[in-house]
Structure formats: structure tokens, C-alpha cells
Write a structure and sequence with these properties.
By secondary structure, the protein is of the alpha+beta class. It is about 40% helix and about 20% strand. A hairpin with a 5-residue loop joins strand 2 and strand 3 (about 90-95).
Amino acid sequence: MADACDQALQRAHLRGEEVDVLIPHQANIRIIEATAKHAGIPMDKVYVNVDRYGNTSAASIPMALDEAVRGGRIERGMTVMLVAFGAGFTWASMVVRW
């Protein structure tokens, strides 16, 4: 996920500290923390729910995004980065202006 973050930030012409909220695939907390550290995003800007639901696979980012919006963590105009990985070499990342 670290490389996926790098590519998304590069294409968006941003640095990690410019991201308001990172919503990573909720695989496990070690991977989430390592990804945030690599991208230069402090953990207080990372939305985590793996502690409550476990790894929900392909649903993890949509669930986390919905919770973050409903909970007021994401508001209009914020820069949000989404990053995921799956079996084999599948991955995806994007930066959006909410």
C-alpha cells in the first residue's frame, strides 16, 4: 500500500501532510500504521475501524468512508486518499477532493 500511496500522491501533485484523511484497506493495524508512516500522514488523520469489524475485504474502504462521512471526519473540500490492496498484485489508490 505504501507504493500505491506514493503513486496517488505523485499524480495528484501532493505530499502526505496535505492529505486531510487517509482511508486505507482495513487489513490489519500494522499495515495501516506502516502505510501512514511511509506516506507521512499522522495516525490522527487515518480512519481505522479494523479494531471493530476485522478485515471486511472489499467492503473495508466503502464501510470506513461511510463511517467517516457520517461521523463528521470528512467534510466538503477535504482531501481524502483511499488505498487498497488485494490478492496477488492487485491494488488501487486515489486522491479525491471531497
